[in-house]
Amino acid sequence: MRQIFIDTETTGLEPRLGHRIIEIGALEMLSRRLTGRRFHYYLNPERDSEPGALQVHGLTTEFLQDKPKFCDVVHELLEFIDGAELIMHNASFDVAFIDHELGLAKLQPLGKCCHSVTDTLKMAKELYPGKRNNLDALCERYAVDNTRRSLHGALLDAELLAEVYLAMTRGQDSLLMDLEDPSALDFAISLSELQLTVLPPTPEELEAHVQQLESIERESKGKCLWMKLESTEPAQPSAE
Do residues 49 and 11 lie in contact, with contact meaning Cβ atoms separated by under 8 Å? Predict the structure, then answer.
């Protein structure tokens, strides 16, 4: 399934108060590899950003005034995400804003346009309860370089999120060879080519084995499976 990492920057925190999206960035991933396809626009929200939001993203009204409006790029966005799993950090925030913009454009909400939405913030809280789980904290935890993130940016944050997501979902895969890479099998050997030396047990070891089985048989009140297996084995022909 296609996965799309998506992030937004906005004029404020609450779409119900008229705040709008001013930047949207998205990256495509297939089979845990970024394809290079991306969707990115700065948008004219037709209003000013709140001072607190402006400090976060640094996108001024003057910079945005000649940029396209959301309705100008919405169909390109819907085509890009069609049928994909969307991956967002604090998904409820981004989904609320995108649904608000879709509503203004008289289009169906996001849930009707994609396969599913995955929230990496929820994933992180389950993995690290009680710890800081914002994107910067996750980058530090997983050694993802976020030194370029002096200000929030939708495309940059989507790129960082993709790296964090791969690290979060790698599990024990990092301990295994990548079977998709044929060169990883170069060191494999065939056990049939090995010359194994078989050492028979000494009489003392055989006696100790018998005593151990008899002890298990007594403790289990006749339920020692090994004793039953030995009693059902066919007798070995004697050499004459």
Answer: yes
Q: How far is CA 122 from the centre of its chain?
A: 12
- CB-neighbour burial class of residue 154 (10 A; exposed 0-12, middle 13-18, buried 19+): buried
Going from the C-alpha of 76 to that of each of 40, 73, 140, the distances in angstroms are: 10, 5, 34
Cα dist. 219→10, 52, 225 in Å? 72, 73, 12
Phi, psi of 216 (to 5 degrees): -65, -40
Strand positions, DSSP E, the chain: 3-10, 21-30, 33-42, 85-88, 116-119
Report the distance separating Cα 24 and Cα 22, nearest Å: 7
pLDDT tens for the 240 residues of the chain, in order: 899 999 999 999 999 999 999 999 999 999 999 999 999 999 999 999 999 999 999 999 999 999 999 999 999 999 999 999 999 999 999 999 999 999 999 999 999 989 999 999 999 999 999 999 999 999 999 999 988 887 789 999 999 999 999 999 986 444 344 444 444 444 444 545 556 667 788 888 888 888 888 878 777 777 777 767 666 655 555 444
Q: Name the CATH code of domain 3-174 (choices 3.40.50.740, 3.30.1300.10, 3.40.50.1240, 3.30.420.10).
A: 3.30.420.10
**58 Rama sector, left if φ>0, alpha if ψ -120 to 50, beta otherwise:** left
* Domains of the chain by residue range: 3-174, 203-232
Residues 22, 10 contacting (CB under 8 angstroms): yes
Positions marked catalytic: 152
